[in-house]
Amino acid sequence: MPPEQGSLRFLATGIGSVPYLDIEVTCRDIIRHFPEIPFWPQFVKRSHVEDMTLQFTEGLPLVKVNPQAKQLTISGGASRERELVGFYERFMAEDTDSFAVSEEYAPGLYALLRISTHQPDEHKFIKGQIVGPITFAASVMGPGGKAALYETEILEALVNAICIKALWQVKQLSKTGRKPILFFDEPYLSGFGSAFSPISRQSVVEVLGTSINFLKQRAEVLIGIHCCGNTDWAMLLGAGPDIINFDAHGYMDYFLLYEAAIKRFLEKGGNIAWGIVPTSEFTGHETVEILRARLASGMKRIITSGIDREMLEAHSLLTPACGMGTMPPEHATMATRLLSELSNSLRERRLEYP
Length: 354
Fold this sequence. Notes:
Elements: E1 17-18, H1 23-33, E2 42-43, E3 63-66, E4 71-74, H2 79-92, H3 107-116, E5 125-131, H4 133-139, E6 140-141, H5 152-174, E7 179-185, H6 201-216, E8 222-227, H7 233-237, E9 243-246, H8 252-256, H9 259-267, E10 271-277, H10 288-304, H11 309-314, E11 316-320, H12 329-348
Parallel strand pairs: 1-2, 4-6, 5-7, 7-8, 8-9, 9-10, 10-11
Antiparallel strand pairs: 3-4
């Protein structure tokens, strides 16, 4: 059953990080395996600046980077106010070019754009990703050794900075002629609610909601939130993303506990990105049929809650459980092929529910 034009029905894409070194070959392989939603790869083994937090630090106010240690700190002193003023002048003017990610920091983005620009298709998509504002603020340490999440003024500035950098990226993706999809990657929110989390549920919803609205008011884009561990899924679903992406291999049962929130999300037009292909737990023994059965089992529980089967399938897409950057290259290659084959299988042959 072919997907409708512009539909996400069982289309597949990646999360971001890959274990490879050849930029051009990797990007062409991504387009070959995921022609409807290619994503730009983060080459985490190529350079430390492609770490998901360091990669988006260029042009940000107050943030000092120690690339070798992968540490981010907030500068203090007399220059602090001057830096913030200069930042907000650029931010209010929406000077997105001054917040660009350079090719040194994201060669996969530039390579994918060069290739994809010659293949425009308004009924297809192209995916990017950026560190989520909560995860980024949690990664930046202030002068007292506490995360920027604790300091309202700095948190606000960093959230705005991630938003404007995200807008720059969306504009670049749009130049391909495809509809952009942008994921906020929020691994910090895994296990949200522990005693070590300094931010409230309400603040998380407000920060993510503000970030999503900032982009959607300025561009035609689908916004996703990716969290590869367990979290308060009702919180993320309620923040207003177009797509929620979870590890459907390791956390299927936890996610499906939020039945009412999932139902509301889908009824409002939301999409679920099922991270069905394992990454850290990949064995090489996985098959398309095994993954089809696991996906069908999870989707049946949502259908049982009252969601129409056709609607759920139309609003489901497929990803790996998380980024592939830590996988052995041969396993990442196998997982990529498996994901592509699973997507093709689900679009060609109707899913049977147990």
